[in-house]
Amino acid sequence: MKAANSGLTFLDRCARRCQISRSPDVTAFFEFDEVDVFTTGTLGEPGQRVFFLQARSDGKRYSIRCEKQQVAAIVMHLRRVLTDLPPAEQAPLPGALDLTEPGEPLFVLGPIGLGYDRTNDRLLVQLEELVPSEGDDDDDDDSPATDDVDRGHVRMFITRSQADAFCEHAEHVIEATLADRERDRRRGGCDEHVGVLIGAGEVVGDQPAHL
Question: Which residues form the domain of 185?
Answer without folding.
Answer: 10-16+27-133+149-201
